Amino acid sequence: MWLSKPVYEALPLYYAAIGLVALLARLYVDYWYWPLICTVVGIGSLVAGLLVWLKRRDHRAERPAGD
Fold this sequence. Notes:
Strand content: under 5%
Number of strands: 0
Number of helices: 2
Distance between the termini: 22 Å
Mean pLDDT: 93
Number of domains: 1
């Protein structure tokens, strides 16, 4: 799947935003297992965003400057 460059570059920020929204939603929901679901989704999204950002940073640091 190919994404446009602006969407591709902003993907870690999207993950982080989804994670923050889910963690904030956890504060306001109190029905069934939704607090647990929001916590898992929130932490998972934040970790995914961090991993994508770190992988890209490492890959770009290893790449030659003219490439």
